[in-house]
Amino acid sequence: MNKKDISELRTRMSKSKCTFTRMSGCYVTSDKDILLHINETFLNLEDDEFDKYLAIAKKTLSGTLGNNLLELDFPLEEELTGGKQQFLMGLRESKLKNEELLETFYKLIIDNYDYVGNYLILVFHDVYDVISKTKDNFKLDESEEVHEYLICAICPVKLSKAGLGYLEDENKIGPRHRDWVVSPPDTGFVFPTFTDRSTDIHSTMFYTKSTAEPHRELIESVLGCPSKPTATEQKNTFQSIIKTAVNDSEQENKVYGDIQESLSLLAQEQSELLGSEDEQVVLTNESVREILQENFLPEEIVDKIETAYKENFAEEPPAVDYLLDKKVIAENNKLKAQKQLMEKVEVLEEQLEEAKNSTESSFDEEFDVILHIKPEKVDRIKEEFIDGKRCITIPIDEDEQIKVNGMTDLSFL
Q1: Which among 216, 248, 251, 210 is positioned nearest to 231, based on CA atoms?
Q2: Which pLDDT value is given to residue 143?
Q3: Phi/psi of residue 57, each to 5°?
């Protein structure tokens, strides 16, 4: 699924366009006990409920592709009889009306979901008549195909915050009653995917609120798919590789910042060549070495980074966009600008000093001889009469240099 596919499904999640047929679910305690079941014809819900449940479903299709949203492919064995994909196919075909299948699905989640606390499992069923479009995106009236799919959302249920409030029955201010409140989804998935405006039963779109710690147990045990790292995890791994190889607290941030800037330039150059937002630039092993060498890193560090990169990203090299850290790039540019400014200030100070020295050493109408001598030598200057003439004598050590009227070659003396 690309951004357009996701946007097309999300756009339909409104009061006027929604075609959800059914919603089922259950409320689970921290002891893994089911307190209640939900089975509703979605379009019959009261407006207030309708909007809030719809917002939950919509949330599972939000966030960044490759980070909050991970497209997962089912292994072949999961598409055989008894596999997870086959089970989800059956659940979809039941239109959420088979209680036995639903109970099996709930139990599968409850047995594997690693979460401490109460939570709500919700499953939505939708049937979308996909209207065909021309190449220039103009809609036609006839339906090209029907996309039937499920949305599953798992929402933490937490106690509202403690506090004081107005107790109407007692007409006083007292401890507010604390309610169990359903939070936005912590995780969820859409099955099957809607790819190129068509149903793809061989993949699912997994949603995670936390990009640093996605629930891999659900990916592997509930969906039966191989786990895939989020963009945040890939970025953190890449940063760790760089800093471990550099192993210098003073230099590692600068090196990482310079590499981030190089990655940003690479992404920009390649995206201009590809000309499509959906085509991602992959950071190959060769590209890693080139970037490191461009930043003049020692060969020993280059080899360490390259080796660690191959080990961590052997199965699938990450997209360059996934490794970019905008905050680091901005900070690095800021530091570079400050450094350039400091260098300009130093040059100006040197020029001012030279101009000052030049002015002080130049002759004016009042004086015929002007000396510019370091303070520590002033007390060694003597006024003497030599051959009847008034002279100033200045002792010169062997390692000291002399400049007269801008000239250092005093052979004419």
Answers
A1: 210
A2: 63
A3: -60, -40
Last residue of a domain, one of 287, 313, 337: 337
For residues 188 and 210, the answer to whether their CB atoms sit within 8 Å is no
| pTM for this entry | 0.78
Indicate the average pLDDT of the chain: 88
Quick one: 183 and 128 in the same domain? Answer: yes
Query: What is the C-alpha separation between 351 and 346, in angstroms, rounded?
Result: 9
| Contacts of 285-290 spanning 24+ positions with Cβ under 8 A | 285/309, 285/310, 285/317
Tokens representing 385 are 């009469």
Query: Quick one: how far is CA 273 from the chain centroid?
Result: 23
Write down the pLDDT at residue 136.
58
Structure-block tokens of residue 138: 């103009």
The answer to whether 62 and 153 are in contact (CB under 8 A) is no
User: Do 268 and 329 sit in the same domain of this protein?
Assistant: yes
Q: Is residue 408 part of a domain?
A: no
Distance CA 323, CA 333 (A): 17
Cα–Cα–Cα angle for 49, 53, 54, rounded to 5 degrees:
115
Residue 233 CA neighbour count, 13 Å, CB half: 18
Closest CA to 154 of 184, 198, 111, 116: 184
Q: 228: which 2 tokens? A: 């895939």
Does 345 score more than 80 pLDDT? yes
What are φ and ψ of residue 296, in 5° steps?
A: 55, 40
User: Measuring CA to CA, how many Å separate 377 from each of 272, 354, 374?
Assistant: 65, 21, 6
Cβ-count burial 34-48 (b if 16+ within 10 Å, e if not) = eeeeeebebeebeee
3-state secondary structure (DSSP) of residue 398: coil
Domain count, the chain: 2
Residue 134's pLDDT is 60
Domain presence at residue 378: no
pLDDT band of 365, cuts 50, 70, 90 = low
- For the segment 89-112, the average pLDDT, to the nearest whole number, is 96
Asked whether residue 280 falls in the same domain as residue 188, the answer is no
Residues 269 and 191 in one domain: no
Q: Does the pLDDT at position 168 exceed 90?
A: no
Give the pLDDT band of residue 316 (cuts 50, 70, 90).
Answer: confident
- When pLDDT is cut at 50, 70 and 90, the band that residue 138 belongs to is low
State whether 222 and 248 are in the same domain. Answer: no
Residue 345 lies in a domain: no
> What's the confidence (pLDDT) of residue 359?
60
Domain that holds residue 306: 232-337
